[in-house]
Design brief:
Layout lengths: L2 E2 L3 E2 L5 E2 L6 E2 L1 H34 L5 H6 L2 H9 L4 H30 L3 H25 L4 H16 L1 H4 L14 H13 L9 H24 L3 H29 L10 H28 L3
Helix pairs in contact: 1-4, 1-5, 4-5, 4-11, 5-6, 6-8, 10-11
Length: 301
Amino acid sequence: MNLRHAPTTTPDGYAFQNATGTRLNGRWLVLARILWIAVVVLILALFVASIPAFNALLQSACTTAACHAFIPPYSMKQYQAAGLSVHFVLIFTYALTIFIFLAFLAIGAVIFWLKSHDFMAFYTSFAFVTFAMAFNSGSLLVLVPAWWLPIQIISFLGGVAFGTFLYLFPNGRFVPRWIRWLVVGWVIQAGVEYFFPNSWLNNSWLMTLLLVGLLVSLLVAQVYRYRRVSSQIERQQTKWVVFGMSNAVIGLVLVDLLYFSNPLSIFHPGPLSDLIAETLLQVFILLIPLSIAFAILRSRL
């Protein structure tokens, strides 16, 4: 791959580039941009294909299995008792799904438009747009099950790309070097989750242990990089990402503890409050791509 850089070396023997990053040039840049555009066009086509299926769902009076995937029968009775129509809940849920997808896509598109020549920025953009599919794959599979394979392939790519992002951020290089071998773990985890969702392995303690180990490795990689390798600019970028992720995790945990966890919940669950809580979860998740995008565009990755 034609990567242009002018590295300096740290006392630990790692090379980094202070502001310009690792650049894509020539045919690799062209191929990367073609791949990104092709994947985004396919994702948009899948979402457009889901619109007629969703309209049919609205006309079914929520009597089909597909509708029950959006609204379980017991929840539907609660919504109706609270004076909320099934149509409203379906439209709100679908609109929230589309909003999150478009938010991830828009952030990824801005990074791609401004920084696609930089490998780390391109990788981040690709992770965002594919993770948007991974995040919403369940809803799409319900609406357009005939497109199972392309949905799962893109979701798999999103799971691997988003999972390995912190191994590379912010300079596009694996630090420490041995961490690259853990990408195999993310491939296995995403492969089982998206290609064998109904297998015993997907819900086994082995996959849970693997996922926990991989998440811990992300923290180890970033702490090691920050303390031993990162330049001043890269440390500032890391601070922005850690700030966004920390607030997202704190928000998600608080919503879960204060609302969804029955022993600790202080708010009374109900149909309308369910929708509010789910919306808050989605908003907190958006803090992650927003903080990463700010680190890339504002701190000049």
